[in-house]
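Backbone-to-sequence.
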């Protein structure tokens, strides 16, 4: 039988039903090939480099296809994407294709394969959304039924992807508070790798919902075939990679179904979160570039708008907020060239003033004792300094010592009939976002702030607790298992309402540091706080891992004090600046404790960051030397899409005398172009030998440049680091 092939090239608007057997889902450089013959199983034939012409026909003919969405119950000995219990108790599914369709939208093509059970009135749509300007395909499923009573969803993955066995390695991130984004790289072996989260609120402190698969052995940054997968969900997730007795690794990704069985009512549609897939033949960095471009263009809030350089008050004054102190910090950051001041925790509470973390969350009124001029007084001070003003809130939380809790004890998450489980400060509780009244309360908090003070430019949205006691005082008894899912639906609804009204507002996702670095969250947030750990050396590692999936524009990275408040490490200011400048630059320090020399260096760095900001925040990343390789240094660069400007970073990661370090060949440049090299944040008493000279991209990519291991300034002997600007000579 000849298979009918539908290719989307040049297709304007096509809705096909029933006829298409083979569907090719294309991005500029990738293809996902599916087969969807009516009445039979939907299959994935191929995922990899873009196919066209006869290759498409041949792949469809010879590749071994795998079930596109394995369902449990009829010969499914391995993992399943979907497992349900029908209203009559039957636990099996047998899904076949009913029809398929491809629809072209302005910037993407959406392929839908409608499946139905052979016996029960239960339907599943598999959706594949291929972006036209980014090499990412988003895949998810939608489940519905017409059975008389509710169907119990027991497993409900967003998508499934078979990956041909071989020497396949997985790279993933793990960690904990103050140690987020640690990179683990390991080969896939028989058995099952499970990466999951059950926090309920934050989902990227411990594990991360994103992975990379290197198909050609040990992961390489700039070569080798690589698949990236990122589950776009802010709640509990589970990624499973099963390696059984066949030729494939089986990747499933979706909401973590543990303690979350879902009763799907007749006619209701359960929409799973998208799994974003990318493929690159240019190694891990290639897949990162694909994710970053897609994130900036389509996923991250305001992803193409450059971010301001800010000072955040937290490590400078902690809870010790007052008008005078805030004004001093504003004047200081303005004098260094900063553009925004963010007042962190400690500004609110009337009956219970927020002096520490034991009280007041939920009482979002200014503490007049600390700030007699109120928020307007702070905005006026920011105006006088010609900078913008931002503010910290933790809207999903309350303390039991708060007027909010006194008024609405039924608004907090708590198992019926049991005592509260308390979090931070011994009094923190999580509000029950499944409750529409709570959703309104949170929306109104932001709406009132923004209506009264439209000049607020930035909100730091924190979330410092997990769901510790499973129970909703709002959900009915038979839906208690919906809590985690209902919480995140409520959270998303609030975020959508806020974004509909305040699309331009910059909002940072903070969750005890890096607890919300995730593509389920980022459509509503402009950036995330990578970690409460601001130690520059540890940040090299954390930001390295984070950059696998998230662009620099979203990675808040602040210059902080020495000794560092988390590690007590004394790192020279130059190194602290150079690390912070590789992300979204900010400061988190008490400027009045800085020396004039330190301030001067920061002033210079801020001015230079303004020059390179578009390269860092909108450019393509090329990671060159991994700190995890323990070679004594780490290095990466950003290059503009036009390849006319680039910034190269190099940081020593081990501090031994006369250690022999590798020279780092650059990447991502145009071999034909000539680039003039300028060192930024220079502190040495004489310029580097190559300062102001021009080299071809070919030379720089073959040889790199010889970097001195030290700065010739005594107090910077340790922790050498370099930032080089490369500019095309026309
Ligand atoms: C969390 C955040 C910090 C800071 C404090 C304030 O820990 O991660 O950045 O905002 O809360 O209490």
């Amino acid at each position: 039988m000849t298979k009918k092939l539908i290719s989307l090239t040049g297709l304007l608007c096509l809705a096909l039903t029933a006829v298409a057997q083979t569907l090719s889902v294309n991005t500029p450089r990738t293809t996902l090939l599916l087969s969807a013959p009516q009445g039979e199983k939907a299959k994935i034939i191929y995922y990899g480099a873009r196919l066209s012409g006869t290759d498409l026909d041949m792949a469809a003919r010879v590749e071994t296809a795998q079930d596109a969405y394995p369902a449990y119950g009829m010969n499914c000995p391995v993992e399943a994407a979907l497992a349900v219990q029908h209203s009559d108790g039957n636990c099996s599914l047998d899904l076949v294709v009913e029809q398929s369709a491809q629809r072209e939208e302005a910037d993407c093509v959406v392929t839908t394969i409608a499946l139905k059970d052979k016996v029960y009135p239960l339907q599943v749509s598999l959706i594949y959304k291929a972006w036209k300007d980014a090499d990412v395909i988003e895949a998810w499923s939608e489940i519905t039924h017409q059975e008389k009573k509710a169907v119990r969803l027991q497993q409900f993955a967003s998508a499934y992807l078979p990956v041909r066995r071989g020497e396949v390695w997985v790279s993933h991130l793990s960690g904990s508070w103050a140690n987020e984004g640690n990179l683990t790289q390991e080969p896939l072996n028989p058995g099952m790798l499970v990466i999951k989260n059950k926090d309920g609120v934050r989902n990227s402190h411990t594990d991360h919902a994103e992975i990379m698969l290197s198909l050609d052995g040990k992961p390489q940054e700039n070569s080798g075939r690589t698949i990236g997968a990122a589950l776009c969900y802010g709640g509990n997730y589970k990624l499973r990679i099963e390696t059984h007795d066949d030729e494939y690794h089986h990747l499933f990704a979706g909401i973590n179904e543990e303690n979350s069985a879902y009763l799907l009512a007749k006619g209701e549609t359960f929409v799973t979160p998208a799994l974003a897939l990318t493929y690159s033949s240019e190694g891990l960095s290639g897949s990162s570039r694909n994710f970053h471009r897609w994130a900036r263009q389509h996923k991250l809030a305001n992803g193409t708008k450059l971010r301001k350089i800010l000072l955040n008050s937290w490590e400078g004054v902690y809870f010790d907020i007052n008008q005078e102190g805030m004004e001093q910090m504003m004047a200081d950051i303005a004098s260094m060239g900063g553009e925004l001041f963010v007042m962190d925790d400690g500004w609110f509470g009337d009956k219970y003033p927020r002096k520490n973390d034991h009280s007041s969350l939920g009482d979002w009124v200014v503490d007049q004792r600390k700030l007699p001029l109120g928020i307007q007084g702070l905005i006026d001070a920011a105006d006088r300094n010609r900078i913008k003003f931002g503010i910290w809130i933790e809207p999903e939380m309350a303390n039991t010592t708060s007027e909010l809790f006194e008024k609405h004890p039924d608004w907090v998450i708590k198992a019926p009939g049991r005592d509260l489980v308390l979090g931070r400060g011994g009094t923190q509780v999580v509000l029950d976002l499944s409750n529409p009244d709570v959703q309104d309360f949170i929306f109104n908090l932001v709406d009132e702030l923004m209506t009264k003070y439209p000049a607020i430019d930035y909100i730091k949205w924190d979330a410092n607790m997990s769901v510790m006691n499973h129970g909703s005082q709002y959900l009915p008894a038979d839906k208690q298992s919906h809590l985690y899912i209902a919480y995140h639906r409520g959270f998303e609804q609030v975020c959508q309402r806020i974004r509909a009204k305040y699309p331009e507002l910059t909002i940072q996702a903070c969750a005890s540091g890096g607890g919300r670095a995730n593509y389920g969250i980022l459509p509503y947030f402009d950036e995330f706080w990578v970690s409460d750990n601001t130690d520059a050396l540890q940040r090299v590692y954390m930001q390295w891992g984070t950059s696998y999936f998230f662009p620099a524009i979203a990675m808040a990275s602040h210059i902080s004090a020495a000794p560092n408040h988390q590690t007590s490490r004394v790192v020279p200011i130059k190194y602290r600046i150079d690390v912070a400048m590789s992300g979204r630059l900010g400061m988190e320090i008490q400027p009045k404790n800085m020396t004039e020399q330190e301030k001067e260096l920061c002033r210079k760095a801020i001015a230079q960051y303004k020059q390179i900001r578009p390269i860092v925040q909108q450019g393509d990343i090329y990671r060159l030397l991994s700190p995890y390789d323990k070679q004594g240094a780490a290095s990466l660069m950003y290059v503009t899409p036009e390849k006319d400007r680039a910034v190269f970073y190099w940081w020593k990661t081990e501090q031994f005398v006369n250690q022999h370090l590798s020279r780092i060949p650059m990447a991502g440049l145009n071999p034909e172009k000539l680039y003039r090299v300028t060192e930024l944040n220079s502190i040495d008493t004489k310029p580097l030998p190559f300062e102001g000279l021009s080299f071809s991209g070919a030379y720089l990519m073959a040889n790199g440049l010889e970097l001195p291991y030290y700065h010739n300034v005594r107090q910077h002997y340790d922790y050498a680091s370099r930032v080089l600007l490369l500019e095309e000579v026309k």
